[in-house]
Every structure is written in C-alpha cells, then in structure tokens.
Write a structure and sequence with these properties.
Length: about 450
C-alpha cells in the first residue's frame, strides 16, 4: 500500500485542476440550460455547433499540451528560465493555430446539411458557431497560461478566474439570448456571443495574474526573450502533435456521433447532447486527475525520483477507476432529476434516461483511458495514446456504433454502445502500456 501514500499530494494538485475544468464545462452546461428554453431544435443547433467547435479547439489545446511535460520537467530540475521560454513559444503557437481554426469554423458553419442534419437545426448551428468561433483564440491563450502555471503547481488562480467567468457567461446568456438591458434578443447565437465575452475576460485575468506574480516573486518571465525559437517550438510540437491527434481521435469520435445523432432528428439529438454534457461533467474529475498526474510524474522524473513517478501513476489510475464507478452509479440512480435540469420535453427525457444507462456503464473506462494518457504524457510518451485512440475509436467504436444504429435499428442507443466499446479498448490498451513502462523503470532502478 506504500504507493498510495502519494494520494494526498495528487489530490491536492488534482482538486483545483478538476474544479477548474468543471468550471470550463459548466459554461457549456449553462449555455445548454438557457438554450434549452428555446426548444429541442435550439439545443440540437448548439450541439452540432459545439461538436465542430470542440473538435478544432481540442486540437489547438493539444498542441500546447507539451507544456505538461516540458515545464514540469524543467521546473523539477529547477530550470525556471526554460519554463518561461516554453510559455512564450506556446503562446505563439496558440495564436497561429487559433487564427487558422477560427477561419475554418466561420466558413464551414454552413455545411451542416452536408452531414444529413435537418435544415432548421443546421441553421441554428450555423448562427451559434459563427459567434462562438471568436472565443477560440482567447480560450487557447488562457489554456497555455493555465498549463504553464499548473505545471509548476500553481492551480488556484485559474479556478477563481473560471468561477467568475461562469457568472459573466450566465449573465451574458440571459442578456444576449432573450434580450435585456436594451440588447436585442439573438436566440441561440446569443449564447455563443456570451461565451466570447466570458473567455476574453478569462484571458485578461490570467495574463494579469501571471505578470503580477512574476513581478512580485521576481521569477524572470518579464525579461524572457520574446523572439521566436524554432528549437523550443519544435519540442512543443513533437510532444504536442501526438497529444493533439489523441484528443482529435477521441473528441472527434464523440463529435462524429453527434453528427450521426443529428440524422435521427431533433429529439434524439437533444437527448444525446444532454447526456453527453452529463457524462462530460463526471469526466472532468478524471481529466483533472490526468493533468495533475502528468505534472507530478514529470516533476518526479525531472528531479530523478522514478520510484515516486511510478507510485503516482498507479495511485491515479486506481483512485480514478473507483471514483468513476461511484459516479456511474449516481448518474443512473438520479437520471430523471438530472435530465429535468435541461429539458421538460417528455420524449427527450425518456430517450435520455436510456442513454444515461449506457453512459454510466462506461465511466470507469473513460476515467482509466484519460488518466492512462496523462501518466504516459508525464514520462514524455504521447504517441502510444495517439495510436490507441485511433484504433479504439475509429477502427472499432465508431464502426460498431454505426452498425448498431443504422443497420440493426438501435438508434441513438447503438451509437452510445459503440462509444462504450471504443473507450474500453483504449482504457485497456493504455493501462497495459503503462504497466510495461513501469516494469521497465523498476528494472532500470534495480540494475
């Protein structure tokens, strides 16, 4: 049981990180609650818009995830100046990526009908995405600052900023969707503009905090050269690109399921989106645990402590699995009260209740795969997660879901069973790889 003595420091870092990620997701939940008052078509439009947005956003954020290893490893080795240099290059990378992805979102927002989406839902999705896309750059820059702080063990400021930002977003939804304080009612597009406002605030607040902290502690960030560094950027890309593709394969799989659910009509799409939000809500804790694990494993390796790196990895996986099993039980036991938060439509609630059963069953797999990915990222191995997610989601999960949904007539249930199959395969694969890596690390220590 010695390995589990790392649980306390792990949770100390993971708790604010998880709450921070919950804060980010809560913005989407609040959007869905407000948009839900407009009916299933509006929820469906926001869901397809969010699917497109999330797919590109997660690729952009993944490109800066090399900060987890590079900054935490440098911080563990007491090379603070190197931490600053990686942040500067990550900010440049975020700007370039967000400009490209924002343009793609804006001009591709009118293509939803090509995926078989109902014209009314597609129109709502277009208006939502063409507003929402302008929140990408501030969010990606915010994420780079957050990962930089997080890799050095500073997590509370981002959490506080997100709590305040959620208040900004909620007020913005009320003002821009329905029209208050002299503003016109913009419907579903108003929710997108509210998110833009909230994320601009997030960027301004975290940039102010980082610079103020640097001035107070005299850390040297303000004197770090701002010139582009090909060497450091390539290091970020080398680690970040596989992480970005890993997230693309996973989130892209969920986004594809959203598009397929859109072909089934407004009610199945609305039920799918609500259940996806609820599943994502419970997923934020393991995701935060994954990030904290990557940081602590990286710091341990940077300081030369492999024993601690191994202990942290197994502690995170076991705790994450237990937590996810508990949340799955709660999700299913309180399915109807949870669904009533988002909708009063009986048809949506009936289908959503059935989908929540499937979602509750794959909670453990979902937690283990994301924590496994974080552990491997902490040792600088991001390619294995990429290949495993490609195989699990795109070569198995999605084909199974499509077959069950459209060939065997299971509808949205079939799509979610396919997601469950894919996540389980990825979880088993990454856990096995980590077991092998930990075994190799122990062998090195003993030799």
């Amino acid at each position: 049981m010695k390995k589990y003595r790392e649980l306390a420091p792990l949770l100390k870092l993971a708790a604010p990180v998880s709450l921070s990620m919950l804060g980010g997701l809560f913005m989407q939940l609040v959007d869905t609650v407000f948009v839900g008052r407009l009916g299933p078509v509006a929820i469906g439009g926001a869901s397809v818009g969010n699917a497109f947005f999330a797919t590109l956003m997660i690729v952009g954020i993944g490109m800066s995830m090399g900060l987890d290893y590079l900054v935490s490893h440098s911080f563990g080795a007491k090379k603070l100046e190197l931490c600053h240099r990686y942040l500067v290059q990550a900010l440049y990378l975020a700007v370039v990526n967000s400009l490209v992805f924002t343009a793609m979102m804006y001009f591709c927002a009118g293509t939803f009908t090509l995926f078989g989406i109902n014209a009314e839902i597609a129109a709502a999705g277009k208006s939502y995405l063409q507003a929402m896309c302008f929140s990408l750059m501030p969010f990606m820059l915010f994420s780079a600052f957050r990962q930089y702080l997080q890799a050095m063990g500073v997590t509370v400021p981002a959490l506080i900023i997100l709590v305040v930002a959620n208040g900004v977003n909620a007020l913005g939804n009320w003002v821009f969707i329905f029209g208050h304080f002299g503003f016109s009612a913009h419907g579903v597009a108003g929710s997108g503009w509210s998110t833009v406002l909230a994320r601009v605030f997030m960027l301004a607040a975290i940039a102010w905090y980082v610079l103020r902290r640097d001035r107070r502690l005299k850390l040297g960030l303000r004197t770090t050269p701002l010139k582009f560094s090909r060497k450091h950027t390539l290091e970020l890309v080398k680690l970040g690109l596989p992480s970005a593709l890993t997230l693309l394969f996973e989130v892209g799989g969920f986004a594809t399921v959203t598009m397929l659910a859109g072909q089934l009509g407004a009610v199945p799409l609305a039920a799918h989106q609500i259940v996806l939000h609820l599943a994502s809500l419970t997923f934020m804790i393991p995701l935060g645990l994954s990030s904290a694990t990557a940081v602590l494993v990286g710091q341990s390796l940077g300081s030369g402590n492999r024993h601690r790196a191994i202990a942290i990895g197994w502690t995170a996986i076991v705790f994450g699995a237990i937590f996810a099993a508990f949340m799955g039980l709660l999700m299913y036991a309180f399915s109807l009260p949870l669904l009533r938060i988002f909708t009063s439509d009986f048809r949506v609630m009936q289908l959503g209740s059935a989908l929540l059963l499937v979602a509750s069953l794959f909670q453990v797999s979902d937690a283990m795969q994301t924590i496994g990915s974080g552990v491997l990222r902490g040792i600088g191995n991001t390619k294995v997660s990429m290949y495993t997610n490609l195989a699990g989601h795109w070569l198995l999960g999605l084909p199974v879901g499509y077959m069950l949904c459209f060939w065997l007539g299971w509808g949205a249930h079939g799509l979610w069973v396919g997601l469950s199959v894919g996540l389980t395969v990825v979880a088993l694969g990454l856990t096995y790889v980590w077991w092998r890596k930990a075994h190799e690390m122990r062998g090195t220590l003993l030799s």
